[in-house]
Predict the 3D structure of the following.
Amino acid sequence: MKFAGYFLIVSDFIKWSKENNINVGPGRGSGAGSIIAWSLLITDLDPIRFGLLFERFLNPERISMPDFDIDFCQERREEVINYVRQKYGDKRVAQIITFGKLQAKAVIKDVSRVLGLRYEIAEYLTELVPFNAVNPVTLEQALSDVAELKQAHSGKGLYNFDTDNELVKQVLDTALVLEGLNRHCSVHAAGIVISGTELLDIVPLYKDQNSDMSIIQYSMKYAELAGLVKFDFLGLQTLTVISKCLELLKKSGVNIELPTLKFDDKKTYEMLSKGASVGVFQFESVGMKDTLRKLRPDCIEDLMALGALYRPGPMDNIPVYIACKHGRQKPDYLHPMLLPILEETHGVIVYQEQVLEIAKILAGYSLGAADLLRRAMGKKIKSEMSDQERIFTIGAEKNGISKIQAKDIFASVAKFAGYGFNRAHAASYAVISYQTAYLKANYPVEFLVACLNLDIDDQDKINVFKEESRKLGIEIISPNVNKSRGLFAIEIENNVKKIIYGFGAIKNVTINFGDEIAKNREIFGEFKTVTDFVERLSGKLLTKKGLESIIKAGCFCSIFSNRRSLLENVQKLLAHSARFIQDKTTRQSNLFENIQKTDDIIDIYDDYDLVTKASMELEVLGLFVSYHPLMAYSERFKESNIRSINDLMNLLQNGSSVVKIAGVILRKDARMSARGRFITLLLSDPTGNIDVTIFSENTLKDYAHLIIPKTSVIVECEAFRDEGSIRLTASKFIDPKEYFNNITYDLKLSVSSYKELENIMNILEISQKSDQKSSKVEITLSVNSFDAKISFKSNHQMLKDELAEFQNKIDNKEK
C-alpha cells in the first residue's frame, strides 16, 4: 500500500520522544490495532493480547490514508513538534489553519459589548446558554429550550435583573443574525503537515504574529485534497499528570515502569468499585461514578467496555452488561458460534471489531469485506444494507444457519453496529484510565499533588481535589509564607504525608513569585515578621494586588494573624519595602538595622470577624480553607433538622426522601438533556461539597435571586440514594437569615419566686421592643406548693443565651 514512509516518520518522532522522557500515550484510534505499529514502537499495546484487528485500521478493500493520532504529555508536546521542524526543515513543516466561528456564548458577549449592555447582564445571558462540549448548543436551540432566554427574547426581561428589556431583546436578535459567521483565524489543535518539498511551492501560507511557525491557509479537509499528509500531535493532560506523579515518586525512591504494569491490582479495582474516580481518566463524571459502583469492575476488559458503552445510544446496554456480569441475567450470544466473540462482553456487542469477526465466522466474510459491512451498517444506507444482508444470509446458510435465523442475527448485529466503538481505541484509553487509577489507589498524595498542579489556575478543579483529599483523610495545609512554594508540594510529618497549598493557586499570585519566596527561605531561613518578608523580596516581585491576595489567603497567619491590620497598611508595607531596598542599594545603614517588628511600621486595627475572613479566602482561593461561613449556624441547623453533607453521605438510607441542606453555592453550570435545560450547583458546607440539580423552570424562576454563586442558601431537596451514590434535586431555596428570623420557639420556664419571675419578665420586655415577631411562652410559678401557669406570646428571639445564663444562676443558687 506504499505507506512505509508514513509509518517510519511516525515511529521516528515517537522514539525520539521516549528517548527524551516525554510521555507518549499507549495508542489512540484504530492504529493501535496494527502489530507493525507495535513492533515499530508507535504504540505500546499488544494487539494479540487485546484481540485487535489490523483490518479495522487499514485493508486493501478500503483504500485510505493511514492516520495515527498520537497523544503526548501536554506540557512537552511543543518539544516534539520542534524536533520535527528541525529534522525536516521549517519550510516543509506547518500548522493547519482553522476558522473560529461566532458560537452562541461568544456572539452574545461580542454583541453586548458593542451595544453597551451591562457586563454582568451579558455574563448572565451567556450562562443561560447550556454547555455541551460534544454538540455545542446553538442560540436558536437555547431560545427554544430555555424559558428564561425565551422570555428575555420576547422583551419581558430576565428573572433576576431589572434592566433595559428592549436592549436585551436587541442583543439577542442581533446575535441570532451573526451566529455562525467566521470570527477569527486560529490553528488546528493537533494537526501538523509535513511536505516532501517547500510548502510555499504547493499552498498559500499564513503567518500568525504570536507564532514563529508557518500555517497553511487550507483547512484540514482541503489540505488533504491538495496532497499534504497530516500528522496529529495531541496534548493529553492526563499524560502530564502521570509524568508529574512518577517524578514525585522517583524523588521518594519509588520507580514505576508503566509499560510493564500489570492490570491485576486489587486495590485499584476496589477503589473504582466505590466510585472514587476523581482524577481518573475517562471516569470522573457523576454518571461514570454511579456506573462504576454498579459495575464493580475487576479486570481491564471491564474498563474497556465501560469507556466504549458510556455514550448516547450504547448507554442503554450498560444495565444488560452489568446484570449479565453479576449473574442476574443470562447473556444472549445470538448463536453458539459467537460465544468466543461475545463472551468477554457478556453477550453485548460493544466493539466494531466484534462486528467484523461475527461476519467472518458466521458468513465467511474476509476481514476487509467485513469492515465494508460495518461501515454500511454504521451509515444505514438502505441500498447497501440490502446488498449486505443478501451476502450475509447466503454466507450464513453455507455454515448451516437457516435463512430466518441469519436475517434475525443480521438485524441484531446491524442495531448494535450503529453504536459500535473502536476496540483499539477503547483498549488504549482503558490502559491510561487504569494507570491513573493505579497511581491514585496506591500513591494518593503524589497523584493528587500532580492533579492540583496541573489545574493550579482552575479554582473549580482545585476545589474538587481538595474535597477528594478530605474524603481520603489527606490534610491540605493552608497557604503559608514559611511553608508554601509556587506549586502544591508534599510535607512529611511523623511519617504522615500532607499537601502544602501552592502560591500559584492564589488569585493575582504567580508560581514564579512562590518559587522566589521558597528560594529566599532556603538561603536566609524562615520569615520572622511581615516586615522581614517585604524587606527580603525584590521590589519587582512585590505588587499591591499580590500582597493583598496573600494577606486575604491567610499566608501570614503563622507570624501575624491580624489580617485587617495588614490590609489597611498595604501601602505602608510596600513603601517600607521600596525604602529598605533603596537604602540597601545605596549602602546606607539604618540605626535599627535588625529585623523590625510589624507593629513598628503599621497601624493596628481590630481584626475582621470569621465570616469576613472566610469571604476573603473564597475571593482569592475559590474555596474556604480556615473557616466556613456556615459554621456559625451549625447548632441552629441541627435544631432545625437541616442535614450536613457529611450526614447525608454517611447516614442517608437507600431510596427516596425529602431533606434540607445548607451551603454556599460555589459553582453554577447550565446543561442540556433530552428533557431540556437543567442547572447543577456545587454546594459547600463545613463538612464537604455536594452537587445539587435543578430541573424545574419554576424553581429557577422563583428563586433566581438566591441561585447565585457565593450565596449562602438552605435547600429543600428530594434525595435519592442508590448503590452508594446520592442524587439531590432542589425544589426550594431559602435565605438562612430569613429562615431563622421566621422560626418561633415554644419555651417552658419554671420559677420558684416572684423575684425570678420579675427578672424573666424584664428580659421578655426588652426583647419584645427589639422585634415584634412572637413565640409562645409558658411560665410555671411554684410558691408554697401552689403552681400558677402563665401563657402568653412574646418575641421569638428572646435572647436564648440570656435566659440560659439566668437559668444557670438559679441552678447555682440552688446548689
About this structure: Confidence is low (pLDDT under 50) at residues 795-807. DSSP finds 34 helices and 17 strands in the chain. The longest helix spans residues 423-442.
